[in-house]
Amino acid sequence: MAKKKMETGGKAKSAKNASAKKRVTFFMRAPEAKEVSVAGDFNGWDAKKHPMKLDKTGLWKKIVMVAPGRCEYKFLVDGDWALNPDTEETCTNEFGTENHVLEI
């Protein structure tokens, strides 16, 4: 299985079926945070659905199955919406703030 690295805060593995969901690893460096989750088009913007886990290096991670195509997402860090400073691809959302963009 070939690997496809994403530059938008995650990594996706290619599958044989182009319409199949892909495993995407979302990540955010926030060593001081007590709680981080990821929400977006892929989960109905439900921040409770995908809580992330903190590793020893201060990196929060969560693997999520995401359908191919374009999706927008953001992180909830200790109750506040946040962008990952290590991710460049963003777009303006309906609230006048920004979301990350992921193309799979």
Structure, explained:
This protein has no helices and 10 strands. The protein is an all-beta fold and 104 residues long. It has one domain (3-103): Immunoglobulin-like (Sandwich). A hairpin with a 5-residue loop joins β9 (90-92) and β10 (98-103). The two termini are 15 Å apart. The model is unreliable at 1-8 and 10-16 (pLDDT under 50).
Give the amount of beta strand, in percent.
over 45%
Overall shape: globular
User: Please, what is the CATH homologous superfamily?
Assistant: Immunoglobulins
Number of separate strands: 10
Our Rg estimate from Cα atoms comes to 13 Å
The secondary structure category is: mainly beta
CATH topology: Immunoglobulin-like
Number of discrete domains: 1
CATH class: Mainly Beta
Which stretches of 5+ consecutive residues score pLDDT under 50?
1-8, 10-16
Let me know the average pLDDT.
85
SSE series? EEEEEEEEEE
Keywords: Hydrolase
GO molecular function, one term: hydrolase activity
Pfam families: AMPK1_CBM
Protein name: Glycoside hydrolase family 13 domain protein
Tell me the layout of helices and strands.
Blueprint: E1 3-5, E2 11-13, E3 22-29, E4 36-40, E5 53-54, E6 59-66, E7 70-77, E8 80-82, E9 90-92, E10 98-103
Antiparallel strand pairs: 1-2, 3-6, 4-7, 5-6, 7-8, 7-10, 9-10
Keywords: Hydrolase
InterPro entries: AMPK1_CBM, CRP1_MDG1_kinase, Ig-like_fold, Ig_E-set
Protein name: Glycoside hydrolase family 13 domain protein
Short description:
Residues 32-104 form the AMP-activated protein kinase glycogen-binding domain. The chain is mainly β.
